């Protein structure tokens, strides 16, 4: 997966954190309007975007002050739909663009997910990716009957077994098992349909999958772990990794650590790219782009920032003292088995292991993280392309970018499609057209 950039567009939060009311947002079409999603898919395909991506979470954030009120009032990380039916509809209006769908290996069962994704791969004609996540939010856990989060490393062990079972199920019916011989009445060859008989630590599954093999055989596998254990899981099975952008030294380190883990797992690092998460504001002039970025400062009030940070870190930041060491907060987050690669960890990477902060300093940085201000590249098509090209070169020209949390929808997508993609194409950084019929061919080149 080297050479040219792959470009994905994250539609997970196009309607949350104040974006639903920002200039350039939909008027007369409110989330989750199906027609709006179909229109977005068609526009993204016209621009040559490789994949539309949907993250997921099933809890309404209630970590901040132990209450859902702020999240509900300001639309923080909610509402969220199961996007599989929406993807099925978007696929009927498009021919090439792929779709990334998220399910939690922490809470879901692999047989159900393997069968669902097989069916969705048929419906889309081979254009599905599966984003496998080890859930790290206490609120989500409560909806599956758990009082707290399972052990951090244990979640990744479960994830690896989850994927192992899914892969065995997807392979349990060989591609040419279906005969359909009208003369003899023989539908399939029994020798090419296999039981799985998996009996592991977390799952016991007999198999086979009672489904016809799908166009891709199995979906493209995406994984976003950035902790040491998460990177090991990525190296074990991921076709492409979703990585945090916005801080080049951390990106270079992530690439190096992933490469080492891939070699240890017996895989070729050239085969696994990273899609770096960025936010992009693209405009005809630099002044207009900067003006739009400056407006991000007014997107969220303090309680909304607190709700966002607390939910995504698994720690109630309303309890912070007036001054504290960042490592103490990171240790508390780790002790709660929550995410080990979030906002606090990024602050430590920027400020050092011995950094201390005041509460006011922390929340001043926090709104930049919650809105994506620090991760937002803003400028003309040439300026944004310069930035992406520099990151792409520095991280080994393997993968590309996941354009996330746009400031407005559909305005931001149309700017990317109409302004940025032509500039990247002019430079030879993205393909001119789609390379194949399936997402695997287009995203991975194989």
From TrEMBL:
Domain of life: Bacteria
GO molecular function, one term: oxidoreductase activity, acting on paired donors, with incorporation or reduction of molecular oxygen
Binding site for FMN: 56, 102, 152, 156, 227
Secreted is among the record's keywords: no
Record domain Luciferase-like: where: 26-396
Keywords tagged on the record: Flavoprotein, FMN, Monooxygenase, Oxidoreductase
Similarity remark: Belongs to the NtaA/SnaA/DszA monooxygenase family.
NCBIfam families: FMN_nitrolo
Protein name per its UniProtKB record: FMN-dependent oxidoreductase (Nitrilotriacetate monooxygenase family)
Lineage, uppermost ranks: Bacteria, Bacillati, Actinomycetota, Actinomycetes, Micrococcales
């Amino acid at each position: 997966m080297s050479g040219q950039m792959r470009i994905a567009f994250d539609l997970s939060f196009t309607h949350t954190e104040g974006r639903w009311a920002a200039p350039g947002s939909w008027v007369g079409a409110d989330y989750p309007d199906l027609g709006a999603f179909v229109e977005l898919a068609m526009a993204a395909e016209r621009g040559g975007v490789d994949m539309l991506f949907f993250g997921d979470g099933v809890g309404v954030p209630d970590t901040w002050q132990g209450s859902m009120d702020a999240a509900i009032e300001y639309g923080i990380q909610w509402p969220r739909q199961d996007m599989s039916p929406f993807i099925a509809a978007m696929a009927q209006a498009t021919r090439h663009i792929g779709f990334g769908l998220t399910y939690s290996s922490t809470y879901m069962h692999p047989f159900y997910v393997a069968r669902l994704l097989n069916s969705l791969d048929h419906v889309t004609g081979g254009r599905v990716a599966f984003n496998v996540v080890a859930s790290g939010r206490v609120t989500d856990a409560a909806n599956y009957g758990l009082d707290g989060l399972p052990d951090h490393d244990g979640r990744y062990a479960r994830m690896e077994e989850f994927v192992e079972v899914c892969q065995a199920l997807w392979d349990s019916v060989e591609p040419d098992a279906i005969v359909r011989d009208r003369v003899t009445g023989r539908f399939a060859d029994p020798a090419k349909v296999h039981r799985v008989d998996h009996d592991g630590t977390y799952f016991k599954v007999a198999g086979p999958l009672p489904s016809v093999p799908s166009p891709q055989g199995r979906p493209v596998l995406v994984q976003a772990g950035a902790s040491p254990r998460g990177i090991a899981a990525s190296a074990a099975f991921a076709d492409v990794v979703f990585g945090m952008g916005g801080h080049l030294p951390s990106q270079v380190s992530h690439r190096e650590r992933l490469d080492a883990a891939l070699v240890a797992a017996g895989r070729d690092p050239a085969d696994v790219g990273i899609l770096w998460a960025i936010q992009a504001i693209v405009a005809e002039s630099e002044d207009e782009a900067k003006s739009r970025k400056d407006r991000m400062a007014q997107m969220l009030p303090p309680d909304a920032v607190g709700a966002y940070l607390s939910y995504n870190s698994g720690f109630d930041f309303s309890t912070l003292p007036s001054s504290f060491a960042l490592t103490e907060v990171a240790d508390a987050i780790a002790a709660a088995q929550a995410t080990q690669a979030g906002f606090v960890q990024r602050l430590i990477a920027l400020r050092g292991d011995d950094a201390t902060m005041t509460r006011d300093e922390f929340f001043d940085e926090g709104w930049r993280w919650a809105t994506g201000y620090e991760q937002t590249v803003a400028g003309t098509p040439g300026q944004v392309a310069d930035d992406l090209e520099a990151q792409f070169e520095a991280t080994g020209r393997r993968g590309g970018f996941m354009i996330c949390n746009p400031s407005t929808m559909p305005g931001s997508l149309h700017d990317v499609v109409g302004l940025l993609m032509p500039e990247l194409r002019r430079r030879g950084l993205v393909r001119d057209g789609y390379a194949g019929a399936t997402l695997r061919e287009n995203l991975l080149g194989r």
